[in-house]
């Protein structure tokens, strides 16, 4: 490597007058010439350092996020063209978890409670044959437009993990553990879920019990299933079905869910949740089926110093299963 | 520096998958490496890279094209790093101090060349934060002084002086080494 080309280095370092002065000085000063030569060498050598490669797992994560974001952008474009009204504020983390959990229970339960005439028979059959599901999506703040990421892994109907913003929940081996900001971490057997703190916690907790969640969605709310034709989604032919929660009935507070299922495989490829005013609240739009997850996915990382309350042997929590509601 | 053309940015706004994939393919390496050099923590760099691109997707509507798209992304990455650093209460290294023996993952090369690159890389990683940031952007990722100034939100002159300072420190650190035929005395 030749290191005597100082001009380019100097051009980048100084203004015109300083450059002239520096050149004049360099003609006279061997020491400075040497120093500048070394700097030039160094800067070139640093530029030539071979870059660290991106871990393949990171690329996968980035691409998954990117595809989800692209789908969301398309969805928002389509939504804003049909109605541009200012949306109402929705959502805290629990709602985010609720929709992610709701999607999870729908998937796990295979829509078994939906009536046969619903048009979801194929989806029921296909989803019941799935071993694992991993899906990602977004919760959209209607006021700020900010999106909060949702991600869920499901293995069978016993192991499930959901991330929604800063909420992290795992259900495994009949226990659930969840973290939300500074709250304690709870370890609770499913039979004591009704003892969870407050109505919101109870509501959240039962969102993760498929039979009860389905009951809430379909029986308590009297949900209605409406076939909505077919369309092409990212080059894939999909069957569209709407699930409508009638007004004035207790339910999930998310009046309309739209299920997009691959017309060939009947597997769900997208789920959308809308407000009664037609605003998109949530979208789950990247589904991967039958991929094997490491067990580590289902172990929750408890932040240092956070108290853990184990209610599994708490006599106040025993008795009265959650399924009675 | 890797560039993203305006047509791709428009395609991003339309939600075209290929545009999102192109941005990842083009910028994931530079952004990951930049964050790796700033954090000196591979795991943190991965997380921050993901957070950076999530912020990019969320903020694409606010990108007005005043700066190059890649420069804008570098700026987001830099701010992600600053938040991470603040959250972790990691003390920044004063300009008159430095660190040694920072172990970072490096690519595989022939042994001799690898040793030389590792020596330089280690010296760069040991630079104080402001010097390392400028060095990573200009010398390692190929940003111009003006672009680096936009990313770091400092005047161009500050970038130049930090680079000047970085080279002075590196010269001292590598004194006596033979850097690819250039003896540093």
Describe this structure in words.
Chain A is of the alpha+beta class and about 325 residues long. Helices cover about 35% and strands about 25% of the residues of chain A. Chain A has eight helices and twelve strands. Chain A has helices at about 5-15, 15-30, 30-50, 55-80, 95-110, 120-130, 200-205, 210-220; strands at about 130-140, 145-155, 160-165, 165-170, 175-180, 185-190, 225-235, 235-245, 255-260, 270-275, 280-290, 310. Chain A has a twelve-stranded mixed beta sheet with strand order 7-8-9-10-11-1-2-3-4-5-6-12. In chain A, strand 1 and strand 2 form a beta hairpin. Chain B has about 180 residues and is an all-alpha fold. Chain B contains eight helices and two strands, in the order ααααααααββ. Chain B has helices spanning about 5-15, 15-40, 40-60, 70-85, 110-125, 130-140, 145-150, 155-175, and strands at about 180, 180-185. A two-stranded antiparallel sheet of chain B has the order 1-2. Chain B is globular. Chain B starts with 5 loop residues before the first helix and ends with a strand. Mean pLDDT of chain B is about 80; it is low at about 90-105. At the A-B interface, helix 3 and helix 4 of A face helix 2, helix 3, helix 5, helix 6 and helix 8 of B.
Features:
A: alpha+beta, 35% helix, disordered C terminus, B: 185 residues, mainly alpha, two-stranded antiparallel sheet, globular
Which pair of protein chains has the largest interface, and what are the residue counts? A-B, 45 and 54 residues
Mean pLDDT reading of chain A: 63
What portion of residues of chain B is helical?
A: 55-70%
**DSSP strand (E) fraction of chain B?**
under 5%
Oligomer: heterodimer
State the separation between the terminal residues of chain B, measured CA to CA.
31 Å
Q: What's the helix count of chain B?
A: 8
Order of strands, main sheet of chain A, comes to 7-8-9-10-11-1-2-3-4-5-6-12
User: Which percent band covers the strand fraction of chain A?
Assistant: 25-35%
Taking strands numbered 1, 2, ... along the chain, how are they ordered across the largest sheet of chain B?
1-2
State the end-to-end CA separation of chain A.
79 Å
Mean pLDDT of chain B: 81
């Amino acid at each position: 490597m030749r290191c005597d080309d100082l001009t380019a280095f100097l051009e980048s370092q100084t203004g015109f007058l300083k450059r002239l002065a520096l050149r004049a000085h360099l003609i006279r000063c061997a020491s400075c010439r040497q120093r500048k030569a070394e700097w030039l060498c160094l800067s070139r050598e640093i530029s030539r350092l071979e870059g660290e490669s991106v871990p393949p797992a990171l690329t996968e994560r980035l691409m998954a996020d990117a595809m989800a974001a692209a789908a969301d952008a398309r969805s928002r474009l389509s939504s804003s063209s049909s109605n541009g009204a200012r949306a109402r504020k929705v959502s805290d983390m629990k709602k985010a978890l609720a929709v992610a959990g709701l999607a999870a229970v729908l998937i796990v339960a295979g829509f078994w409670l939906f009536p046969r005439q619903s048009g979801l028979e194929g989806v029921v059959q296909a989803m019941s044959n799935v071993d694992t599901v991993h899906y990602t999506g977004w919760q959209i703040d209607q006021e700020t437009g900010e999106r909060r990421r949702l991600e869920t892994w499901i293995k069978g109907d016993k192991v499930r993990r959901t991330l929604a913003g800063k909420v992290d929940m795992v259900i495994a081996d009949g226990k659930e553990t969840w973290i939300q900001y500074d709250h304690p971490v709870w370890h609770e057997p499913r039979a004591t879920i009704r003892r969870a703190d407050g109505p919101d916690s109870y509501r959240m907790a039962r969102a993760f019990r498929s039979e009860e969640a389905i009951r809430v969605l379909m029986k308590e709310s009297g949900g209605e299933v409406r076939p909505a034709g077919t369309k092409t989604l990212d080059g894939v032919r999909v069957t569209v079905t709407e699930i409508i929660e009638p007004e004035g009935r207790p339910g999930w507070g998310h009046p309309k869910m739209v299920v997009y299922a691959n017309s060939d495989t009947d597997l769900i490829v997208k789920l959308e949740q809308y407000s009664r005013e037609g605003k998109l609240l949530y979208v789950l739009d990247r589904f991967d089926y039958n991929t094997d997850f490491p067990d580590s996915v289902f172990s929750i990382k408890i932040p240092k110093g956070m108290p853990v309350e184990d209610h599994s042997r708490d006599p106040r929590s025993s008795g009265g299963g959650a399924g009675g509601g | 520096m890797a560039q993203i053309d305006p047509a791709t940015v428009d395609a991003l706004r339309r939600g075209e998958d290929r545009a999102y994939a192109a941005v990842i393919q083009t910028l994931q390496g530079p952004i990951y490496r930049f964050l790796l050099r700033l954090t000196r923590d591979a795991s943190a760099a991965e997380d921050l890279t993901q957070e950076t691109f999530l912020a990019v997707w969320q903020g694409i509507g606010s990108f007005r094209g005043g700066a190059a798209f890649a420069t804008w992304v570098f700026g987001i990455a830099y701010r992600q790093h600053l938040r991470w650093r603040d959250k972790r209460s990691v003390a920044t290294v004063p300009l008159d101090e430095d660190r040694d023996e920072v172990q970072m993952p490096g690519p595989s090369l022939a042994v001799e060349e690898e040793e030389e690159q590792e020596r330089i890389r280690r010296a760069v990683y040991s630079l104080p934060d402001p010097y390392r940031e400028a060095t990573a952007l200009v010398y390692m990722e190929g940003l111009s002084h003006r672009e680096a100034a936009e990313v770091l939100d400092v005047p161009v002159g500050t970038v130049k002086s930090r680079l000047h300072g970085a080279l002075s420190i590196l010269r001292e650190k590598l004194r006596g080494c033979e850097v690819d035929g250039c003896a540093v005395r």
